[in-house]
Amino acid sequence: MNRFRFWLGIGLLMLLAACSQQPPTTAALQVIDQAEAVRADWDSKMPPATGWTPVKLIDFWDARWPHHDGVVWYRLRWNQADAEMPVGLLVDYVCLADAVYINGSLIHRDAHLTEPLSRSWTSPKYFLLDRPLLHPGENTLLVRVSGLAAYQPGFGTVAVGAPDAVQARYQQGVFWRHNVQMFDQAVGMVLGSLFLMLWLLRRKDTVFGWFAFSTLLSAGYNWNYLATDIWPFASTHAWQAFNIALYFSAGVTFMVFLLRYRERRLPRLEGVLLAASLLSIIAALLVPETMGSNRSGWAIVGGIIYYTATLAFLWHALRRPRADRLVLAACMLVQVLTSIHDFLLFYGWIRSSVYLLAFTSPLTLIGMGFVLAYRFAVAMRRVEGFNAELQLEVETATRQLTQTLAREHDLALTNTRIGERLNLVRDLHDGFGGSLLGAIATLEQSPPSPDAVRTVAALKELRDDLRLVIDTTTHAQDTDLAGLLAPLRHRWSQRFEMAGIDSRWQMEGLVELRLGPARSLDLLRLLQESLTNVLKHSGASRVDVAVRYVDAQLHVDVRDNGRGFDPTRPRLDREGGAGLVSLRQRAARLGSELALDTAVGSGVALTLVLDPTSSGSAQP
């Protein structure tokens, strides 16, 4: 950002300096735009005596002598009223090299008037004339111009007058034709180097790399507006060939840059154009005379590529507006309009010595600076969003970890309780269970008596109850509800058969259904108490037991065809009411409510509907 402000400040100062200079008055300055011209060969030391042709300056001789490579002499005359006072002389434009004579005396000569030619067209020339060079009355200016017809050789206007006025005009010319180009060159090198480093540090951002290549190639081409000799090349053709190759390659890489900026790829077209760029550079090195003298064709193709890519980007920016696209498109639009002037000037369709595209360098700086700032802001917003998302994810993960640890803690406590319960059950089985079986065996082997029979029956009930506790405790972790009900069904089927009661059992959907130890025990005790009531109090000849898992609900039904009872009688709580209270309590612990349907002479129906997953311990 500081660099951007620095160069923008320099550009504004240069513009202000140029605008602040007042144009010289016609009284102090005479501009000569009429001259005579005659062509000569490369070895011409003096102008020919005949063949002079009147010309209007600025003059490009390729239009008059289209195939003339060599020398053209220009002769201008003006009247000097007072030769005692110094006079300023400004030669505005010469292409390519020149020697300047005043009244037959040499006052300037380029280093190379034959190949490799010097390059005098980049800046005007100022001279201060005094006696004895300056004569009162008519004075003659002769300018020997060396050039090649392929590169618009010619001669510009001449200004003569008061030194201050002429020098002010000279400084304006230097500013517009040299200093602005120097500024443009500096901007191009800085931007190209900056984006090249950005690309090298972040290779996946190819848009930066292609912009860097395009800018550096353009900077190489723009050196054409500053160089005063053709080093390191041996001829003007070689210089111009390599220069137009850089121009063409800059247009191609600029097109690829705009495609990448739009996040698009055209592999075939890009491959063809990049191959053509490589071919242009090879041709510039191998056949510089052909390449240089035919540069117009390469310039036309390069210009078409540049304008097509730019207009396509402008259309894209308008169709899909975004701040960075619109700012860059606005800057590019001004550059496109300016480049039209330079394109026409390049082909000689307009007469001027000033190329204007260099003036738009601040726009390139502004446009790409905004692009960088926009992308930086977008990246920062993404980073901030990522940080917020990451913080949320961390908080979520922390919360989940806390919940997991809490569940593991609860599970550890449950496992500890289960372990203690298993130890207690094993002790009951090994101790109390063994004693109970021994007592039953002893009583069964003793002489039969009514008291012994009743005692054995009571002990067997205790044995069955102990088995129920042991079964639900030791097998509930790895046995489903169907497995837990099988022993109960077997024992009670035998009991009902011995009592002359027809028992019918229906088990449906219980495989892989688990209620957990506590709920399984409650369910089995509920069934046991219900069946005990049927056996002891109902006087039934048939009992139906149904345990079904249907529509995510566990349905438990126990129905008999016994004598039934009146549920509204107060004696109920005294004659078996304790059993019903126990059944209702167990039903409540199972998360359900016991439904009782009975009447005198109509049997009893107990119904229970529960959600196996309501307590969180069931695993259907």
UniProtKB/TrEMBL annotation:
The alphabetical list of record keywords is: Kinase, Membrane, Signal, Transferase, Transmembrane, Transmembrane helix, Two-component regulatory system
From which organism does this entry originate? Dyella koreensis
| Entry's transmembrane regions | 182-201, 208-226, 238-259, 271-291, 297-315, 327-350, 356-377
Pfam short name (any one): HATPase_c
Residues forming the Histidine kinase/HSP90-like ATPase domain are: 518-612
GO terms of molecular function: kinase activity
Highest taxon, organism lineage: Bacteria
Name assigned to this protein: histidine kinase
Q: Which reaction does it catalyse?
A: ATP + protein L-histidine = ADP + protein N-phospho-L-histidine
ATP-binding in keyword set: no
Q: Where is the signal peptide?
A: 1-27
User: What are its E.C. numbers?
Assistant: 2.7.13.3
